[in-house]
Amino acid sequence: MRTPISLENPGTFGMGCNYWASHAGTAMWSDWRPEIVESDFKKLSDHGVEWLRVFPLWPDFQPITQMRGQGGHPVEIRLGECPLPTDSIGQAGVSAVMLGRLIECRGLAEK
């Protein structure tokens, strides 16, 4: 069994990389294909990659827009094309769909 890599274990070394899905690059969140991400992760692991850094893009994960009315006065904040949902995730201006994809991505990475 390998020694866990951490800041508490001086002298350990791990290999990692930045990750964007092979089929979509920076559009991976909007063009989410978990089967391809899982395949990518398997290939990376087979080549010794132990750590990945993924990038949840602001426009995908928090697509909020301030809507203005007559005279430019703020009317409402929308999440994409819809009013902000009433749950805590929606009220934070975060897309529940994208958050679910990030959680799924973590699960695939842990495999």
Overall description:
The protein is an alpha+beta fold and 111 residues long. It has one domain. Helix content is 32%, strand content 17%. It is built from four helices and five strands; from the N terminus they run βαβαβββαα. The protein has a three-stranded antiparallel sheet with strand order 3-4-5, with no helix packed on it. Strands 1-2 form a two-stranded parallel ribbon. Strand 3 (64-68) and strand 4 (74-79) form a beta hairpin. Helix 1 (34-46) packs parallel to helix 4 (96-110). It is elongated, with a radius of gyration of 19 Å.
Short description:
The chain has helices at 34-46, 58-61, 88-91, 96-110; strands at 16-18, 51-53, 64-68, 74-79, 82-83. It has 111 residues and is an alpha+beta fold. It has one domain.
Give the arrangement of secondary structure elements.
Blueprint: E1 16-18, H1 34-46, E2 51-53, H2 58-61, E3 64-68, E4 74-79, E5 82-83, H3 88-91, H4 96-110
Parallel strand pairs: 1-2
Antiparallel strand pairs: 3-4, 4-5
Core attributes:
single chain, 111 residues, three-stranded antiparallel beta sheet
Indicate the structural class.
alpha+beta
* Beta-strand segment tally: 5
What summary fits the major beta sheet? 3 strands, antiparallel
The coarse overall form would be elongated
Mean pLDDT, all residues? 90
The ordered H/E elements are EHEHEEEHH
Supply the number of helical segments: 4
Strand order of the largest sheet: 3-4-5
What low-confidence regions span 5 or more consecutive residues with pLDDT below 50?
A: none
Radius of gyration: 19 Å
What is the domain total for the residues? 1
Question: How many angstroms does the end-to-end distance come to?
Answer: 17 Å
Strand content: 15-25%
Helix content: 25-40%
